[in-house]
Structure prediction request, 467 residues.
Amino acid sequence: MFRSLRFRLPALSLAGIALAGLVTTAIALRLYQGYTHDQSLRELSREARGLTRLYAEQALKASDQGRFAPDFAARQLEDATGDRLFYVGLNIFPDQSSGLTTLKQSMVPWKALQQGRGEVVFEFTPPGERRTFLAVGNPLFLGGGPPFGALIVATPKTELRHEWLTLLKLLGVSFAGGIAVAALLAVYLSRRITRPVLGLTRATDEIAKGNYAVAVPEVRGGGEIGQLAQRFGQMAGRLAEAELLERNFLMTVSHELRTPLTAIQGHVEAMREGLAEDPEARAESLRVIAAESGRLARLVGDVLDLAKLDAHRFTVLREEVDMERLLDHAYTAFAEEARRRGIDYRREVDDRPPVIVSDGDRVLQIISNLLSNAFRWTPDGGKVELSLSSDNGSVSVSVGDTGPGIGQEDRERIFRPFWSKDGRTGTGLGLAVARELAVALGGRIQLESEPGNGSRFELVLPSVASL
Prediction:
């Protein structure tokens, strides 16, 4: 369970959200701590300045006018401000009490306050208290000269911590609520993501058992999972087609092998039993044996060539190839079949036939395969054209026919191994081998065709092949 994608997706999502929440909370708390600290200092500083002026004015009036100390008590000021008030230094009301809690000079930074350069921020523990106070001391002057003392306004640091804890509790509640919502959303999204993945897993198990007719789950909204499901469906279709092609190929090859082998075996038995003693009959038997042996050799050669090309173990030669001479050779090989079937067989060559650097035998094999395919599909009395041209550093050999043509849906299939358009004749290797050989020689095979208007295959090769 803990290793499944259904658990890991929400777990990782929640872990990321929790980490982000903790980092955000820590940053927010740290910023709030700095803000409250600075705000408290500003409040303490403002109160210290105001109260210092107030007490200085009252002390001067008491001294000049013989008044008593102010009748407002320090406790009332503390209740009004919410802070504690202290005093350190000489008594500003002779023979009278100011009502302020007096501190010893050793408890405060007295030297800094005595210099009278301005307010001083510090922390201390007042007498009778266990808490630490944040304080601002402001020097108190009565006329010229050094300060008489300093008025100190302080607030417990525990109150600041209380504010921080209050904020932390609020953030904790918000964080818990956010985690709960995120968990529900993560579980929902993970199920939406893993449901088609589990469906693909079940489909994979069926394909592993050899059942290619599986139902691929449909993924709404597309995305990466939708593309995966689409590609998986295409793969299943290709595997089913490959299995069908392989089965058809085995049946076709079995038939193709059995036919010449049966003919060869029959003629050999006839010669062994003395049934072909007549010179003409013996010669005919030998001709049939030679023809059927060549047919077997071509079939086995095509299979071996395709296997070598697929394994990238195919080597080609680098030699000068006279394309006009090679085209004549290919043309002559099918001339007798064209005459016998009444096919209009034509050859066209440029005024300056090129000489290229390539593998002549393989180029001849490609052209022969294209011609064999053209004659196979051209009806008796039809037309086959073989032409040679060159342009911009490349050579083109075109083979056109007046066969039934090839539909758009079959233009890619005809180059697949073991695929035959009619599904009955041929091994389906000729065009596959031709295209792979063309790529191995640094070229390509192009197709132009319309159903009912014949086809034109064009072999394009570089003048100097990069072998």
